[in-house]
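PT: before anyone asks, these are the final sequences, not the draft ones from last week. 980 residues across everything. Please model them as a single complex and drop the result in this thread when it's through.
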Amino acid sequence: MSIDMSQFYQVFFEEASEHLANMESLLLELDIENPSLEDLNAIFRAAHSVKGGSGTFGFTDMTEVTHVLETLLDRLRKEELQLRPEMVDAFLAAGDVLRAQLEHHQGGPDADADQIRSVCDELNRLASGESGGHDAAHASSPATAPEARTVALACALPADIAGDHAAIENLLAGLAEIAAVDLKHRPAASAPRLSATLTTLKSDGEIRDTLAFYVSTDAVSLTPGAAPDEAPAAQDDSFGFFDGAPGAAAPAADPGFGFFDDAPAAPAAKQAEDPGFGFFDDAPAAPASPVQSDPGFGFFDDVPAPAAADSASADGIREEKDKDGAYGFFEDAAGKPEHLPNRDVSAADAPAAIEGQGYGIYVNAPGGTGFFDNAPGAPKMAPATTTSAPPPGGQSPGRRVTDAPGVETAKSGRRDADKTVTAANTDTSIRVSVEKVDQLINLVGELVITQAMLAEAAGAFDPVQAEKLLAGIDLLSRNTRDLQESVMSIRMLPMSMVFSRFPRVVRDLAGKLGKQIEMKTIGENTELDKGLIEKIADPMNHLVRNSLDHGIETPEKRVAAGKSPKGTLTLKASHQGGNVVIEVIDDGGGLNRDRILSKAKEKGLPGVHDGMPDSEVWQLIFAPGFSTAEKVTDVSGRGVGMDVVKRNIESLGGKVELECSPGYGTRTIIRLPLTLAILDGMSVGVGGQTYIVPLTAIVESMQPTADDIRTMARDSRMVHIRGEYLPFISLAQVFGLPDAADVTQGIVMVIESEEGKAALFVDELLGQHQVVIKSLEHNYRKVPGISGATIMGDGSVAMILDLASVTRMGLANAQRRKAA
Amino acid sequence: MENTESTGVVASGEYLTFTLGAEEYGMDILKVQEIRGYDAVTKIANAPAFIKGVINLRGVIVPIVDLRIKFKLGDPTYDQFTVVIILNIGKRVMGIVVDGVSDVIELNSDSLRPAPEFGSILDTRYIMGLGTVEERMIIIVDIEKLMTSQEMALIEETAE
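LR: through. Structure below.
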């Protein structure tokens, strides 16, 4: 090919993954009892888009899988088959296979060939279902007879192939292998169209596959019967993909659009004068004509006609549709015979779709010829042509219509419609690399610091004299804040990005475990930093699997416990203060305190005793290698997991907690900071140094009186606040700074960390800031008690406290003193 | 900034010389990012005394080491003449405090003599050799090896 397709691969990969994800979510939502046609169509469209794209880019393996997928979907869509649960399973499996193939094309490992085969076989088996036989999808087509049959092949080729002599030879040779070919029209650059009569044993699908390398299978139309001989008038190059027949309109006494070369055949067809044309089985005599017009017919479920007249009629309908601004959803085409044009030659329907996308040039050519400027450049839209105003209703020749081409053409139209949607999406969103966004965030961070520096410097000026300067700085600070917020929001993604993967996990696991599970999600619009979203998915996966495997009981057990046999798994996200709280809630049996305790003792975990409070017992399951599962399944139970979950979440600056009421369920609560880059902090002064305390951890601050400070066992100091005794931790002592002599002159902050509550003693509170977190490890090393550093308004560096670690150090200090 | 690979073998090149007390040291000039005055540093809790703390170098947090304290040379006073050499070592940026920066000299391997082995504070592992320029002895330090060594405690023990 003259165009280097590889440059578009990435787009295809991204689009295909989106389509697959879309397909999967639709499948999971599908009501098996009563599937809505709309959903089935949407699934079909997704599958079809993947097929179209993979065909275009030459990923024939994917085309094959999607093809069988489509075959089954199509029968469902037409309500020829009843949807059954195993079909959904097969669709999901096919989705997995496609994803694997997609990864393979992106340089991943090879897709499992056996799996592909078995999925295809399964789909074929299901598709053949009631009517039995591989060609069930084409059941209504007369072409399904097992004996040799004659089909008219017509397809539009991309101009570059048509002009490539060698490629044409290959194509024809390929065809010759599967069928006896009676070539009617040899493609040439000037007329990039192939028309031939094939006599073959093969199914339409196989013929299409043979051509798939050269031309999108959708552009291929196969019609039973012989292809028409080329009309002399057909050689008009100006029609882009199709040879036009400018004169063709004349016999039809109608503004004709030279779209098909079959003009001469049309009058014959016209004689049928049958106003209905959906399933015209009654006009078998109608000559097959180049059906490449059909691809445009988009959504005629009932399909394009092999004869020119048919295409003309379809065309008319489509034009009606065009007027409505609908691109190609002409399921009802058959039901609109009143729009049937009496033109013989049609402009293709594609123009509708194309026009919808703004590519098309819609030219009225009432006098006769249409032309298709855009066609050659848009192989996918092969049938692109122009059309004119809807023709007057009139006769429509009857003819036989097969299902198969209809399906194909419908797909083609759909794809155009899909493209329109995609095009619309690209208008509203852009893909930007994360690095660029991060760079932007860094720069804004610097800007915030600079702005704070300016503001501080400006504070020294006389407000009267420097009024304008100060006003400007005020404005600057407001703008900077807005800018920072907007920039930060770029990285924010909704939790649904994570939640959306779980319906599938739950469905698969529930099936595997023989449990009935319903999944609910709450608050999936809660936004979280992209970095966190990516990292939270794995821990959540563990938690969900745990809930399904160990939490929710089997239906029998549930019924025995007086619960509904169907378990519920709830995923919930919400904002709480400066945190995002994600909860995984199941209504299962809960944790078994005794078993955890005995297991913990068995493993010799430190500090385990029978009198431990529940909350501490639950924390034990986060110990490495801890599992109370009686048997190891491939779902969970190996004891790797919860410790990883905990570690992962803590590395994100979050916490994980468990709440459980035996018999009623378990709730795992993950608390995460909103973002990794910015922190709301309180700056405090200790021994001449400034430290930042994360605001979210501060419960309250107070100036203690001498009475509030109590000692226990000689040295350990406690603070008595609202009836609670909290360990008194002097930050100065922890960091080896000069301690304030008088406790009552300082401030006690009640802080809450994973180590529990503590009273942190500092010299003074300085102010509240939003600080940009800078890594200390980048150029230095990890410092105990410090989670990072930031740059203050005056350009100096302040350390951000890691309160859990500070609390631990403070308590250890006290213990050391006690020991000494 | 690109880091030039430390060869371990003394090759000819340009060296930045600096003084610590009465001694004159030299280091590969390609490791030097910039030279600046000493600013207020933010102390790092529980760090060794020779790690003065961190500074904000145009938005980057840079640790500062006082080599005078580390090697017990010179007088660790801080005034407007105190010099900080900002180094680029690997992908890290760090600063060292020295008494003064004197010169950029060119030395080739021939004029370098190996340092005799004796138990000085500055381990001979970190000395590339002794150079002589106009009768002055210059101790050429392998600054990368020194700064990334465990005894400098500048980087995580597990790292590297």
